[in-house]
Amino acid sequence: MEIPARMINAPELKYGPGSKQATVQPRDGAWTLVDKKFSKPMSLGTWIVVIFMPQNSFSPDDAKRTITGLVQGCEAVGMPVPEKQPLFVYKNPQSDVDQSLSDAVMQNRSERKTTPTFIVCILPDGSDTDLYTAVKHCGDIRRGVANQCLHVGKCRNARPQYWANVALKINAKLGGVNDIPDPKLAPIISDPRQPTIVMGADVWA
């Protein structure tokens, strides 16, 4: 099957104040966030980490290193992180996820007198989609709390570029703006009067 198509140039992307490289021209659909700040970075605010694994599979030291990596990744792109050492708790991946997350929130309220506005969940490698779906259903639908799932195989000892990509997702979920396409090259996308969604797909010959 053949269909007509055309190749369009990637728009120049503009980043926020404080960026050493304020604009970037994507090449082959890829670019890095090194020395760039988000256009509208949001604060991570009050957050907690829920680890759906036993401690002998993901130790407290692993958790602390992961938290440090995430904090540094967010701050590198301009996101304020007032809570550098959030509460982290371990939960059974076979447990009632809604109850586990609710218990973690209540524990934070009891110990730190604050209500989390963001939840990071660390999931075991090879876990089925039921656990991920349950986390999303609880956070996005039932509780209305923004959340981010990380798989242990990727977040354990992750490199800065991984955390930059995670920060992209978190900032958007918190209502921030990561970058702004040049309006001259992408007038529809950059016009706030015309809300637009861009769907991406890999096309193989």
Which CATH first-tier class of the largest domain would you pick?
Alpha Beta
Total discrete domains: 2
Estimate the helix proportion, in percent. Answer: 25-40%
How many E strands?
7
The CATH homologous superfamily name of the largest domain equals: Response regulator
Number of helices: 6
N→C terminal distance: 11 Å
Poorly predicted runs of 5 or more residues: none
Biggest sheet strand line-up: 4-3-5-6
Give structural notes.
Helices cover 34% and strands 13% of the residues. It is an alpha/beta fold and 205 residues long. The protein has 2 domains: 1-36 and 179-205, no CATH class; 47-173, Response regulator (Rossmann fold, 3-Layer(aba) Sandwich). Helix 1 (60-76) links the parallel strand 3 and strand 4 (87-90). The longest helix has 17 residues, at 60-76. The chain is globular.
Topology readout:
Layout: E1 13-14, E2 23-24, E3 47-51, H1 60-76, E4 87-90, H2 97-112, E5 118-123, H3 129-143, E6 146-151, H4 152-155, H5 160-173, E7 180-181, H6 187-190
Parallel strand pairs: 3-4, 3-5, 5-6
Antiparallel strand pairs: 1-2, 1-7
